[in-house]
Design brief:
The chain is an all-alpha fold. The protein contains seven helices and two strands, in the order H-H-H-H-E-E-H-H-H. It has a two-stranded antiparallel sheet with strand order 1-2. Helix 5 packs across helix 7. The N and C termini lie far apart (45 Å).
Length: 175
């Protein structure tokens, strides 16, 4: 029962109003402040689900020189409507059109990143495991994009968004 309540509380950060959360972490001297990533995930811009904006994610897998590629893919795939469901048979979700399996895998990778960086978002990332990406907010979809794009090494996952003849392909840097 406690696990379900924790997951629901964490999931409330995905889309919807920003709810103030306690940042007290026993034994953590910096517990009075949110991490940069926590603040971004909870910000009003992080909750916005329409239109292109610079990515709020700045974690391990973020590389500023890949932002043009992200903007191109987001426009092509979901027109920066983060709540969109589309693709063949409605089986792709969010502005980057992630399959349920790809989103689930990304949520595991994001939870692992949070565990190693201590950004305070591990529980929220774990709560994403069973939630389709079009129900994730802007912050989490952008974070998933960069995690998939760079998880093994820079540009390692770009082929998830490869489309023959697409201008976006020309923006891919040398891995």
């Amino acid at each position: 029962m406690l696990l379900i309540a924790s997951a629901l509380a964490a999931a409330s950060m995905l889309v919807g109003p920003v709810v103030p959360v306690s940042t007290d972490r026993p034994g953590d001297p910096s517990s009075s402040q949110l991490s940069r990533e926590e603040a971004a995930a909870q910000s009003s811009r992080g909750q916005d689900t329409q239109g292109p904006l610079p990515s709020l994610y700045r974690g391990v897998y973020f590389h500023a020189d890949q932002e043009r590629f992200r903007l191109c893919v987001g426009q092509r795939e979901g027109r920066f409507t983060y709540t969109v469901r589309g693709g063949g048979g409605g089986n792709y979700f969010g502005t980057y059109q992630l399959s349920a399996a790809l989103a689930r895998g990304a949520s595991w990778m994001m939870a692992a990143e949070s565990r190693s960086t201590h950004d305070g978002l591990r529980k929220v990332a774990r709560a994403l495991h069973g939630i389709l990406a079009n129900h994730w907010n802007r912050y989490w979809q952008d974070r998933a994009f960069y995690t998939i794009l760079n998880h093994d090494h820079r540009w390692s996952g770009w082929r998830h968004w490869q489309l023959n003849g697409s201008y976006c392909n020309t923006l891919v840097g040398a891995p």
